[in-house]
Amino acid sequence: MSVYNQPRKRVIQFIILGMVLVIITRLFFLQVVEKKYSKLADANAVLRKVVYPSRGIIYDRKGRSILSNDAMYDLVVTPINVKNIDTAYMCEILRIDKEEFRKRITSAIIKNGSRRVSVFASLLPPEMFGRLQESMYMFQPGFELVQRQIRSYPFNAAANILGYIGEVSPQMLQKPAYSAYNQGDYLGMTGLERTYESVLMGQRGIQYLVKDNLNRPQGPYEKGEFDTAAIAGKNLRLALDVDLQVLGEHLMRNKIGSIVAIDPRTGGILTMVSAPTFDPNLLTGSYRARNFSRLFADTTKPLFNRAIQAGYPPGSSMKPLTALIALDEGVITPSFGFPCFGAYTYCGRPIACTHHNAGHAANLRLAIANSCNAYFVHLYRMEVDAAKWGGVKKGHQKWHDYISTFGLGHRLGVDIPGESPGKAIDTAGMNKLYRGQWNSCSELYVGMGQGQVVATPMQMANAMCIIANKGYYYLPHFVDKIDNDNTELLTKFREKHTVAHVSDSVYMPVIYGMEDVVERGTGQSAKIEGEIVCGKTGTAENNAIVNGKLAKLKNHSVFVAFAPRDNPKIAIAVIVENAGFGATYAAPIASLIMEKYLHDTISVKRKPQMKTLLEYNTLDPVVREKSKLDSLNGASAKMTSDEILKLYFRD
Q1: Are 476 and 412 in contact (CB under 8 A)?
Q2: In whole angstroms, what is the distance from residue 279 CA to residue 266 CA?
Q3: Distance between CA 274 and CA 338 in Å, rounded?
Q4: Where does the Penicillin-binding protein dimerisation domain lie (predicted)?
Q5: Measuring CA to CA, how many Å separate 288 from each of 55, 91, 284, 296, 301?
Q6: In this structure, are residues 253 and 552 in contact, taking their beta carbons and an 8 Å threshold?
């Protein structure tokens, strides 16, 4: 070889040597210095396992856990890794046939692809899990057991408040809001579980386990050096009193309606009953999907939260609001009387008074105590026709503004989803309804809580908070505190909302009238020994379309109240559908709830009254017969009235 080629040869040799040195150095770094990648690359030896966190617990106002976590397991599958397994044995354990096995594998591939994990069998019963666990090495690496936290409910109550959790759907995963979730994850679907999902869910962890030659986990890999710990969800502390909740569900069994009680000092919801209700344990565990279908199809609509979703004519329970508007606008004074002779006849059609006696509307206080229809429809007309409001159309809009300030006709913002706005017709609505041709006689019924005004039980209870506080309220809410949380989720519930239109001085005449309702008027069945209760009965008309015609059905029983009169601690609204007068059923139910909260007990003198309420049934026999759930009434299921009474009255 020519000596002139020697330098070129050496250059090529140096280049090759340099490349070899770079490769050796990199391999040394990867294999000796940086062990992470080499260790985690060997999928045949290391199992990557997702560790799901413990979901946050929910406590009532006294620190009692009203739901807790139990451990169950899902069997998950990665379809591409399912090879050479004993399909027949797995089918035997899961109690399915081979056709169902293939169907589930195909479904997993269609939903999530062959390389992603999908749930193959969810929330396995204990005996099924036990057999799978001891034989799991036969089904790996395609199948894996994943621990899940499921809810359990020791009080069997508050189903519509707490909500339930379910598996995230493929449709949800396509939305940015669910980017933190993977297929097979669970999240809150309704109630508090949904509203506070971000704090209840916690944070997933990862665990790496060493496998033997039969794919059986042998222990932590590298002493857990590469593991990340799961972070438990945060706990919620509620204003809810679970004793009141259970009592309310007992009292409303075999009835349709609602109870809402609020602490007017804070806006904290003490109890919220929607009846008929159901046992929340029905929507947990391996039978959740089947039970949900039964609940959804049930004729009594137990999934429908009547406390915040059902709209009712408030009836006479709205008369205190009508009185406040009239007093604040100066169209009457507390001494204003109306010559009522049993009916209002000034608009060409008589509107009868349910309760009538001589002088029953001689002044505002008596009119409230005796619930004079004529008095309050006339007040509405005086309000909207007042000259200073510029005519009936401007006057009605002013009336609507007052009603909105009292919380009717719009959502309050309670911290569970599904709240209805109710309805309070404004001037634009009146123009549309009557094609511009109307006057104060057209909708005078709203003065007595009928016609074009609809409220939810939550709105009615909040209105009582406003009167109890003489002009302010806090947004109704369940959650008072989140453990170890510094976010601003609860800030809006600390803000005081003042009813700007109404001056403080107008409240006392109305409050005294509501006191008379209970002491000597239409609501004497709501008396509580040793307490001054201020309330208002209501008998809301119940009309419906039957066979294409408007039919008048049995009225709803309504009662709203707060107690005690001075420094009120509880405000309440009770509606019992198809039960007649407010004093007959709604008032004593409200009274028992208030007495239990204020005294932490119920007087033994009220045992006969409570027994009557427990045994009263407003459910249509045909409807009840068609109902598909044995445990229709949640906490009251399969208990006799005498068994329930023993919980509150010891012999």
Answers
A1: yes
A2: 29
A3: 39
A4: 51-217
A5: 18, 22, 5, 12, 17
A6: no
Q: How far apart are the first and last CA of the chain?
A: 119
Q: Which two structure tokens, joined as six digits, stand for 296? A: 């959804």
CB within 8 A of 260, min separation 6: which ones? 269, 271, 272, 273, 307, 457, 458, 460, 461, 572, 573
Percent of the chain having pLDDT more than 90?
42
Contact 346, 380 (CB under 8 A): no
Q: Read off the pLDDT of residues 581-635 as tens digits, 9 standing for 90 and up.
A: 778 899 999 999 999 999 999 999 999 999 999 988 877 665 565 565 554 556 6
Of the candidate ranges 265-269, 285-289, 299-303, 530-534, the one whose mean pLDDT is the lowest: 285-289
Element (H, E) at 272: strand 269-275
Structurally, at CATH architecture level, domain 47-238 sits in Alpha-Beta Complex (3.90)
64, β-bridge pairs: none
Average pLDDT over residues 246-262: 94
Listed residue (264, 268, 328, 319) closest to 500, CA to CA: 328
Q: For residues 468 and 460, what is the distance between their CA atoms, to the nearest angstrom?
A: 12
Tens of pLDDT, residue by residue over 184-209, are 778 889 999 999 998 998 887 787 77
Tokens matching residue 2 = 């020519």
Amino acid at 480: D
| 73-93 CB burial, b ≥16 within 10 A, e <16 | bbbbbbbebbeeeeeeebeeb
Higher pLDDT, 5 or 363: 363
Answer yes or no: are the C-beta atoms of 64 and 242 closer than 8 Å: yes
Give, for 37, the enclosing helix (H) or strand (E): helix 36-41
Q: Is the model more confident about 628 or about 334? A: 334
> Distance (Å, rounded) from C-alpha 598 to C-alpha 594?
6
Report which DSSP code applies to 317: G
Query: Average pLDDT in the 108-117 region?
Result: 79
Count the helices and strands in the chain (H runs, E runs). Answer: 23, 22
